[in-house]
């Protein structure tokens, strides 16, 4: 049986949030701008469930502002290559995985970043799905750019939206947050959408939410496999639909340093600063299938791994990296989900930094 390994990029493979970093580097107060828009993106995707809107569309909403500051494709390519930060041993992990499974990367990231990542990892770009974009082809007027700079300053000054735990309607938000959401609705869907640069909203398709699920279906279909043959690794709200698809069809779902959105939809939660554990889980899945893998992970002890079907070189590497205590791996249950979500979210910030770690 041919197994399929599919992973998100930023989080499980790299520490970057490339779009956040480009915006922070290129736009005044770009870190605040991106963070506020990312929270708005969470609201649209998870709370309001805006028709035709996918989680991860922050990468679409931010483009007019990047263009206002004359960012080019070449600058995005150079920045991506120069600022790439990999999770330790991610290159070796993907080499291990590719020896036992067909491997794919499904990412919301811009293609500029994914191409740089593939070069660094010696990973085939043809086995990736990402957000295709040529920013150079969009030519906004000087008047539009000036207005977008004004709007960027306005958004950067807005208070960060707080999404109350368990809230399913914006009526439960504070009055300040409701006003912020209404103002952002006007900015994006009335003002910017009517600009010539607003066509990026219809032209660009971000690979997030349902698009990630569709990418998985495409990958397994091309291989003549089934979704039940797939293991998916993710870490954020953009992976929710992918997790649901794989889990509901009998595949294995793993949250790697995930936030609450990821942990709540995955079957296994991993908290690790090193990616080697991903190779271990992938090898188990490929050798013994989902149920036996879950049984082994449930007894997450060094002794259990010495008796498992993990190959000796990989086992030796894991135990050398962790001579005392193994990284945390836990089966997600209804009873531990809330606490595990908190632990994983905090660990995510430790690994990737506070600014990136708190993004949805």
**How many β strands by DSSP?**
7
| CATH level 4 superfamily of the largest domain | HAD superfamily/HAD-like
Biggest beta-sheet profile: 7 strands, mixed
Shape: globular
At CATH's second level, what is the architecture of the largest domain? 3-Layer(aba) Sandwich
- Strand neighbour order, sheet with most strands: 3-2-1-4-5-6-7
Q: What name does the CATH topology of the largest domain carry?
A: Rossmann fold
Poorly predicted sequence stretches spanning 5 or more consecutive residues: none
Query: Strand-residue fraction?
Result: 5-15%
How many structural domains are formed by the residues?
2
Mean pLDDT: 94
What's the order of the H and E elements? EHHHHHHEHEHHHHEHEHEHHHEHH
Overview of the molecule:
With 360 residues, this protein is an alpha/beta fold. Helix 1 packs antiparallel against helix 2. 53% of the residues lie in helices and 10% in strands. A seven-stranded mixed β-sheet has the order 3-2-1-4-5-6-7, sandwiched between helices. The protein has 18 helices and seven strands. The model has no long low-confidence stretch (mean pLDDT 94). It has two domains: 205 residues, HAD superfamily/HAD-like (Rossmann fold, 3-Layer(aba) Sandwich); 132 residues, AF1437-like domain superfamily (AF1437-like domain fold, Orthogonal Bundle).
């Amino acid at each position: 049986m041919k197994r399929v390994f599919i992973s998100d990029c930023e989080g499980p493979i790299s520490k970057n949030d490339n779009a956040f970093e480009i915006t922070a580097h290129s736009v005044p107060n770009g870190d605040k701008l991106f963070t506020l828009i990312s929270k708005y993106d969470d609201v649209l995707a998870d709370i309001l469930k805006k028709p035709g809107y996918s989680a991860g569309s922050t990468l679409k909403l931010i483009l007019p502002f990047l263009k206002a500051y004359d960012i080019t494709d070449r600058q995005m390519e150079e920045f991506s290559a120069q600022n790439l930060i990999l999770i330790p041993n991610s290159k070796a992990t993907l080499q291990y995985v590719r020896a036992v499974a067909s491997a794919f990367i499904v990412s919301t990231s811009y293609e500029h970043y994914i191409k740089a990542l593939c070069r660094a990892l010696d990973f085939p770009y043809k086995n990736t799905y990402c957000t295709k974009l040529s920013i150079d082809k969009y030519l906004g007027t000087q008047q539009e750019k000036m207005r977008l700079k004004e709007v960027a300053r306005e958004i950067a000054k807005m208070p960060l939206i707080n999404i109350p735990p368990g809230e399913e309607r914006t009526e439960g938000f504070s009055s300040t947050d409701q006003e912020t959401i209404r103002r952002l609705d006007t900015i994006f869907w009335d003002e910017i959408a009517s600009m010539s640069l607003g066509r990026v909203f219809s032209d660009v398709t971000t690979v997030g939410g349902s698009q990630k699920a569709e990418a998985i279906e495409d990958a397994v279909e091309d291989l003549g496999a089934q979704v039940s043959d797939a293991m998916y690794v993710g870490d954020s709200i953009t992976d929710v639909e992918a997790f649901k698809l794989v889990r509901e069809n009998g595949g294995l779902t793993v949250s790697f340093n995930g936030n609450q959105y990821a942990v709540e939809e995955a079957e296994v939660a991993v908290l690790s600063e090193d990616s080697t554990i991903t190779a271990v889980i992938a090898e188990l899945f490929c050798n013994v299938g989902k149920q036996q893998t879950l049984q082994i992970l449930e007894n997450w002890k060094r002794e259990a791994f010495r008796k498992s079907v993990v190959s000796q070189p990989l086992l030796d590497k894991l135990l050398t990296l962790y001579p005392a205590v193994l990284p945390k791996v836990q089966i997600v249950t209804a009873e531990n989900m809330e606490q595990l979500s908190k632990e994983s979210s905090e660990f995510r910030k430790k690994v990737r930094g506070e600014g990136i770690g708190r993004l949805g």
